């Protein structure tokens, strides 16, 4: 082990043990509730990541559509190389394998950091960190950030299902996981990478100030008008579809490849386990619909959540 790694571990231990927690599984760091087991990776990436100008970073709050957008970004950026291939990497790999999270093991070791320079350009990464907690080099470079969010009711319901499903596999997990308790915690901001509203706001504001750097997308609008938004995304990333590509149906090819039905029925996603925390790939695909909250939340819960959302977002013109 390198000296740097030892130093980091000591630093991590010191920082983590000083943080307030929710039942040990979430730690309060820089204003957000981060899964304690990700803290090592968070500190490492903040310390080590050297962004390249061509990097593309997908930022989301968990359950906002990360898996979907990872697939779309990969397919979009690598379309010349792979879209006609019978062996498209998305057919044999879960999207999380192709587009790693910054705050997982990537930056634990000094040697692994240098390995990253070998990745082909543009490098694709993902993160659940809020804008304010991104590594300084990401904020200072001209690299692009794609932020995806989802209405808080569906985000909450999806988070709750996911935690129930994979909780048993996780090293640290929520102890109290009834719908009511989780809902209460969510409303109080104590959810994975929450407060939900602060997370969304951190990127929304940045996207207003720097539209060439931060692309802000809602899960719902991507569901409703996928063609329009995929074309906007391509334009933002500087890889617009040519008229010939449009004629050949490239936009639809990507959307079909990355659709819920297609991805969730692939062998790798039905049976495989992702390298990220050893979670089963199938748990990243549940319903993939807008409005499933209607089947879970009471009228009172809806009112409470809507009220918070209205209060937090109305002054900045953000609606769900
Ligand atoms: P539901 O639990 O509402 O079904 P994340 O990828 O950020 O973990 O989010 C997971 C959510 O996105 C789940 O929502 C999942 O079903 C949905 N999802 C996964 N793949 C999708 C796809 N290709 N298209 C649309 N939604 C998808």
Automatic annotation (TrEMBL):
A family per Pfam: Sulfotransfer_1
SUPFAM superfamilies given in the database record: P-loop containing nucleoside triphosphate hydrolases
Gene Ontology molecular function, alphabetical: sulfotransferase activity
Keywords: Transferase
InterPro entries documented for this protein: P-loop_NTPase, Sulfotransferase_dom
Enzyme Commission code(s) on record: 2.8.2.-
Gene3D superfamilies for this protein: P-loop containing nucleotide triphosphate hydrolases (3.40.50.300)
Keyword Disulfide bond: no
Top-level taxonomic group: Eukaryota
Ranges of residues in domain Sulfotransferase: 54-316
PANTHER family, alphabetized: SULFOTRANSFERASE SULT
Family stated for the protein in its record: Belongs to the sulfotransferase 1 family.
Protein name per its UniProtKB record: Sulfotransferase
């Amino acid at each position: 082990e390198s000296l740097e790694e030892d130093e980091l571990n000591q630093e991590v231990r010191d920082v983590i043990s000083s943080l307030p927690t929710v039942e040990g599984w979430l730690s309060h760091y820089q204003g957000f509730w981060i899964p304690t087991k990700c803290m090592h990776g968070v500190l490492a990436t903040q310390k080590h990541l050297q962004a390249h100008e061509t990097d593309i970073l997908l930022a989301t709050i968990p359950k906002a559509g990360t898996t979907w957008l990872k697939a779309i970004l990969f397919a979009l950026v690598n379309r010349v190389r792979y879209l006609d291939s019978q062996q498209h990497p998305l057919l044999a790999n879960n999207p999380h394998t192709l587009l790693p999270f910054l705050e997982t093991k990537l930056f634990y070791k000094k040697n692994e950091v240098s390995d990253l320079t070998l990745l082909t350009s543009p490098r694709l990464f993902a993160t659940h960190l809020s804008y304010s907690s991104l590594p300084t080099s990401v904020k200072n470079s001209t690299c692009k950030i794609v932020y995806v969010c989802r209405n808080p009711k569906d985000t909450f319901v999806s988070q709750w299902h996911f935690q129930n499903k994979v909780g048993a596999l996780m090293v640290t997990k929520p102890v109290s996981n009834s719908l009511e308790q989780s809902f209460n915690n969510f409303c109080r901001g104590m959810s994975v990478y929450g407060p939900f509203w602060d997370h969304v706001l951190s990127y929304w504001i940045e996207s207003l100030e720097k539209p060439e750097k931060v692309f802000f997308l809602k899960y719902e609008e991507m569901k409703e008008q996928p063609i329009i938004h995929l074309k906007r995304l391509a334009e933002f990333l500087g890889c617009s579809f040519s008229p010939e590509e449009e004629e050949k149906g490239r936009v639809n090819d990507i959307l079909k490849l990355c659709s819920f039905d297609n991805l969730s029925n692939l062998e790798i996603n039905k049976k495989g386990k992702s390298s990220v925390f050893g979670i089963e790939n199938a748990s990243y695909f549940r319903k993939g619909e807008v409005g499933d909250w209607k089947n879970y939340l009471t009228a009172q819960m809806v009112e409470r959540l809507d009220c918070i959302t209205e209060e937090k977002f109305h002054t900045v013109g953000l609606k769900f």
